[in-house]
Amino acid sequence: MPPYRLLAIDLDDTLFNNQLGITPRNREAIRAAQQAGVAVTLATGRMFRSAQPIAQLLNITMPIIAYQGALIAQPQTGEYLIHRPLPSEVAHSVITFIKPDKHHINLYLNDKLYMEQLTVYGRRYAALSGVDAFPVGNLISFLGDRAPTKLVAIAEPPDIDRLLGETFPILSRIVHLTKSKPQFLEFSHPTATKGLALEWLAGHYGFRREEVLAIGDNYNDIDMVEWAGLGVMMGNAPEPVKAFADHVAPANYEDGVADTIERFILG
Known about the structure:
Layout: E1 6-9, H1 11-15, H2 24-35, E2 39-42, H3 48-57, E3 64-66, E4 71-73, E5 80-83, H4 88-98, E6 104-109, E7 112-115, H5 120-129, E8 133-135, H6 139-143, E9 150-154, H7 157-171, E10 176-181, E11 184-188, H8 194-205, E12 212-216, H9 222-227, E13 230-233, H10 239-242, E14 247-248, H11 256-266
Parallel strand pairs: 1-2, 1-12, 7-8, 12-13, 13-14
Antiparallel strand pairs: 3-4, 4-5, 6-7, 6-9, 9-11, 10-11
């Protein structure tokens, strides 16, 4: 039996190559790990409805982590095991704070994607995620007293860095803020992180921390990679992010996931 019994893999810029595909080598490595008795899960910032087909394609039967850890759900049935949405009043505060900058905002409710209007950023995001986007006008009016799973501000990287600097001192007490890509700033429940979700999932299925291997590539993966018994960052990760890893794999376009599985699981 391999020393690592649970494998958590991020999707974008980790398992996916630069064309958003999964190479045959990566797919075969995952299949071989499963055949060796390793439980495999996905840990992604994507919506559940966006990640679910990928899990089914890879024959993943473990619950998957979506929305940066705000949701853990069964890929076969869609059953929610854990859901940690943003309280509506907190979501209102985030939207109110961001809105003067006129950044595009994604709002996720009941595993659907909403936005005020279909901007270039919104169309691009929906296309990359393979989901429909629903323009609803004023987001606060639309949301009312409902609790969204998360919010994402989308803008050019310098604007996102500036927004992070402005929002962190004010909002970090009530939300978890993270960058999942240079142009995405994500706002979720304070306990909705990949690390806490992976810790819960491992405990739920009886895996010890030292039996968990996690692979990621960006700031939103740091706490997951730090928590795992073996934490791996991809070669394409930002340099500050690589410092948190036990091992740096080849880049996503060099089959870094397969290299990690072959090295540490199939050995």
